[in-house]
Task: structure prediction
Amino acid sequence: MTEDFVIARNPDGDSSLPYLLRLPLGPDGVILKSREMWPRTSKVYCHKQEEWPADPEIVERVATRSCVRRGAAIDLVLDRGRENRSQFVMTWVRGRQVIFWQSSRTAKQARPSVRTPTARAAGLADLEIVIDSRERYAYSFSDRQVTTTKARLDAGDYGLVRHGSLLATVERKSLPDLVSSLTTGKLKFQLTELASVPRAAVVVEDRYSAVFKLDRVRPAVVADGIAECQVAFPSVPIVFCETRKLAQEWTYRFLAAAHVAADEEYGAERTVVQLVKPPPLAPAPPTPAEVRAWAVANGIAVSDRGRVPARLVEAFREARDG
Result:
């Protein structure tokens, strides 16, 4: 009889992988540490766990239909209607073996049939991006001309900081995070903070079409919420970028464009400051209609047509200028 697939909390609070997975593979099973509870929007990184805790905090327990190893992968089929088929793939990255947990959906998303360009964004030889110190699993920008530092940002997860001021920022969200922050009302507070930055955006690591495949919340509620946020905060676009890799690429190029724009604005401000200030303008000469209206209001006789006498014009100026 096939055993259950079990998800528990990792008792090691210092670990960056907060969940433990127990796979019913073979006579003893397999234990892994995981970043997420299911590969919903992207592949999930996993790592080998030495032992199962004596008294684990069980998060989820599901009966399995099958758990079979096929070559360098473990195929898992759960006994439920949704999120029931997934695969653990053992592969090599930069000389070391890693494990990724994927579903058919996330495997397809990982190959969007596009190749990101290698050209420098905005022609910049180097771009310094500040990553918020609270950001977990941050973008590395390892294949781009980027220098990263970590610091506390007032808004967003990836920022462009100059002379202590945040000039541009990007808030990163997975689709589950976007849905959660939208339904709890947290997103509007975040957008308020982002709107205070000269240039800001929210990047979502998924397709917009994925909103209409949600099963734990009504898709129409999420779609309406996104639209309402865009109307309320038009200066902060919410951009769907299909995959994590494309979201990182968009973030890189957005911040590079903001860097160039900031330089142009700074140069324009310095140019304006250095311009010679002209002397104040003299008051504009009064129109005949203004003089006639003043004369009538003060009981002075004046013709309805023709030229206004110079003496009346002078008297009007004296009265106006005090």
Observations:
- The mean pLDDT is 86.
- DSSP finds seven helices and 14 strands in the chain.
- Helices lie at 104-109, 175-184, 186-195, 219-232, 244-274, 288-297, 310-321.
